[in-house]
Amino acid sequence: MILNHLINVLFPKVCFGCSDILSDNEHLICTSCRHNLPLTNYHINNIDTLKKVFYGRVHIENATALLLFEKKGIVQQLLHQLKYKGQENIGAFLGKWLGHELAAIENYQAIDIVIPVPLHKRKQRKRGFNQAAKFGVEIAAALGAEYVDNVLIKITNTKTQVFKSRIARWQQNTTTFTLENSARIANKHILLVDDIVTTGATVESCVNVLNLAENIKVSVASMAFTA
User: Fold this and answer.
1) Averaged over 141-157, what is the pLDDT?
2) Beta bridge partner(s), residue 30
3) Which of 43, 176, 177, 215 has the fewest C-beta atoms lying within 10 Å of its C-beta?
């Protein structure tokens, strides 16, 4: 107890949202930031806002995001810490949160497999992890589903699109995926998970490839959505 207190004094844990020092009963983000997170509540209120992004493009059974992304907001800071500062626990934290909520909703109780939007192996090797991985693992655990990360494979390495406009992200999307061992997901309801949905182009590419498997359904869940 004394040692832990000394460590906290010398190396205080700070909020990944605002950088204030966390109290002993706070984890990753402070109470103030947590209360100020812009929750979408799409899945709770049965709102199809995210699903509408894919209308006329690919068929999605259900689609939701936990948070709304706003430039220079708390969510942007959290995702920056996750993707570029190696704070994987943020993904796990958000996955547990969303997973708990989805587990109480009938539409998501039928999910068989959770698959993360993959990174190219070169980018994942450089970063050290897929930012959607722990998010997906926790959602799969909450839903009693299987987490699978070796079926949908990214084969084209693309530069980050964080600082591109929505139009530029759409026009320059050259993301390419391939499907391996498609029999593993045949006849399954898949939940495709990612950190953020913007134009929906990446998810659309993934769904088109997943649809090469026999008789599947695809739903989508992300940490954040740029409305």
Assistant:
1) 94
2) none
3) 215
